[in-house]
């Protein structure tokens, strides 16, 4: 090699390095130029009215030895400045909406085949095949089929009942604890399961083509009438209080001071019926698990490069599954996915009861897997883009209206979903800028 060409190569390398460093400095400055207002309550002053993300209380990461709060502010700022493509309706959602409605619309079923058919659907983590119209038949079956036996579930920590239907089919029943308009304050994981969250989550997951949530339908049933079919263990936990039949069940958190009771007018107890996903399910600790202690930070809250730690431990497929789950959890605001469960190595969206607790708050750190890793499945991203500009609310509401327990959500929760969708768009746009 001649001396001249050697110096040329060194020169090119130096120039590349200087450009690389400048871009990084620019990006860090850009992130730091976004500042939260009023104690973490962010209002977005975008240029035009239609470009505004309606203010909500935003809970940002606690003071931590990481840049999380800076990144979260940048996400909110980007969400306030998104291009019209993210704010207008994409007409392509219309046929998808019609197909989804055709799938979940309750339909007649044949009791001698309905469970067998549904149990043949799951493939890895896909509980339902795409465009499977018979889902509506299964929904109708779990919402109306006579309940032959009732007992308390030993699984998980909260009160759940197990119903047995004809042909020995078992399903889980998560009872109603809260009224639709009740707002849960406190930490991101506060409160008990919301039965409506389980139903809405199933619909939302179907919309995002994440067909890995159990099939869920709303139902009301009479505790009193089913007493003769209730097992002894459960019956011991069923006092009558002020003429109402109540139940507190037998589980880790079950106790006499916290029970659900039938409605004094109808005499019925409301809840969500979850169809049992057949096959072996594995439970694993989530890499983004919280410490459930305000004094102690989890590893992911301390390290901006946490994704590289996770990347060494899980496959890319699992990481992408976890990111799908994170943006799904962010939309519903479930901050309690302490474990993730898999079927044939792929993630299931099980336990979605901690969503829709507070429509006025957005816990930004639920998005940590997305903004720390800056990767997302193409299919998920395309699907999210389909539901821009209010199509998410329109489609989800239409699906929710097909459920027996309609309305499932207040308007405030739909508004919150739209706002959070913009934050998800904002995160991905920011990632695109970054890389
Ligand atoms: N539809 C379903 N099909 C199959 N298994 C299920 C289904 N729903 C729940 N399970 C199993 O039961 C367990 C408990 O359910 P779930 O997590 O909803 O209860 P939980 O009381 O909220 O538990 P935790 O307190 O651990 O969060 C789950 O971990 C899962 O293994
Ligand atoms: Mn739970």
List the helices and strands and how they pair.
Blueprint: H1 3-32, E1 41-42, E2 56-59, H2 68-80, H3 93-104, H4 114-120, H5 135-144, E3 149-152, E4 161-164, E5 170-175, H6 195-207, E6 216-221, H7 232-235, E7 240-241, E8 244-247, E9 260-261, E10 269-275, E11 282-285, H8 299-302, H9 306-313, H10 316-332, E12 339-343, E13 346-348, E14 361-363, H11 368-373, H12 378-386, H13 391-400, H14 411-434
The structure holds adenosine-5'-triphosphate and manganese (II) ion.
Could you please describe the fold and organization of this structure?
With 435 residues, this protein is an alpha+beta fold. 38% of the residues lie in helices and 13% in strands. The chain has 14 helices and 14 strands. The protein has helices at residues 3-32, 68-80, 93-104, 114-120, 135-144, 195-207, 232-235, 299-302, 306-313, 316-332, 368-373, 378-386, 391-400, 411-434, and strands at 41-42, 56-59, 149-152, 161-164, 170-175, 216-221, 240-241, 244-247, 260-261, 269-275, 282-285, 339-343, 346-348, 361-363. Strands 3-4-5-10-6 form a five-stranded antiparallel β-sheet, with helices on both faces. α3 (93-104) packs parallel to α13 and α6 packs across α13 (391-400). The protein is globular and about 90 Å long. Residues 23-51 have low confidence and may be disordered. The site of manganese (II) ion (MN) has 4 residues, from loops. Adenosine-5'-triphosphate (ATP) binds at residues 155-158, 172, 193, 214, 274, 276-277, 281, 283, 341, 350-351, 353.
């Amino acid at each position: 090699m001649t001396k001249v060409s050697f110096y040329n190569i060194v020169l090119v390398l130096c120039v590349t390095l200087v450009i690389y460093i400048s871009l990084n400095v620019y990006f860090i400055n850009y992130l730091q130029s976004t500042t939260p207002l009023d104690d973490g309550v962010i209002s977005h002053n975008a240029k035009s009215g239609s470009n505004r993300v309606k203010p909500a209380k935003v809970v940002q990461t606690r003071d931590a030895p990481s840049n999380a709060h800076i990144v979260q502010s940048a996400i909110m700022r980007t969400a306030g400045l998104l291009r019209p493509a993210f704010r207008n309706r994409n007409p392509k959602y219309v046929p998808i909406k019609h197909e989804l409605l055709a799938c979940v619309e309750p339909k007649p079923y044949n009791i001698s085949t309905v469970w067998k058919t549904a149990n043949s659907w799951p493939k890895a983590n896909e509980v339902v095949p795409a465009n499977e119209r018979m889902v509506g038949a299964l929904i109708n079956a779990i919402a109306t089929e006579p309940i032959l036996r009732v007992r308390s579930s030993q699984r998980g920590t909260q009160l759940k009942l197990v119903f047995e239907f004809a042909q020995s089919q078992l399903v889980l029943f998560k009872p109603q604890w809260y009224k639709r308009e009740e707002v849960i304050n406190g930490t991101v994981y506060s409160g008990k399961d919301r039965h409506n969250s389980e139903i809405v989550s199933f619909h939302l997951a179907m919309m995002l083509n994440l067909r890995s949530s159990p099939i869920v339908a709303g139902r009301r049933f009479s505790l009193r009438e089913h007493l003769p079919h209730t097992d002894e263990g459960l019956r011991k936990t069923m006092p009558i209080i002020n003429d109402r039949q109540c139940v507190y069940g037998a589980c880790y958190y079950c106790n006499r001071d916290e029970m659900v009771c039938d409605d004094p007018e109808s005499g019925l107890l409301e809840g969500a019926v979850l169809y049992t996903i057949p096959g072996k399910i594995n439970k694993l600790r989530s890499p983004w698990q919280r410490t459930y202690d305000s004094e102690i930070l989890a590893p992911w809250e301390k390290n901006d490069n946490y994704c590289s730690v996770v990347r060494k431990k899980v496959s890319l497929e699992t990481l992408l599954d976890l990111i799908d789950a994170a943006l799904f959890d962010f939309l519903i605001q479930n901050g309690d996915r302490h474990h993730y469960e898999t079927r044939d190595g792929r993630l299931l969206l099980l336990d979605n009861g901690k969503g829709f607790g507070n429509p006025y708050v957005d816990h930004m750190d639920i998005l940590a897997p997305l903004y720390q890793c800056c990767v997302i499945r193409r299919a998920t991203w395309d699907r999210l883009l389909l539901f821009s500009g209010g199509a998410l609310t329109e489609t989800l509401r239409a699906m929710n209206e097909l459920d027996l327990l309609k309305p499932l959500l207040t308007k405030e929760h739909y508004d919150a979903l739209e706002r959070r969708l913009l934050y998800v768009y904002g995160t991905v746009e920011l990632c695109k800028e970054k890389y």
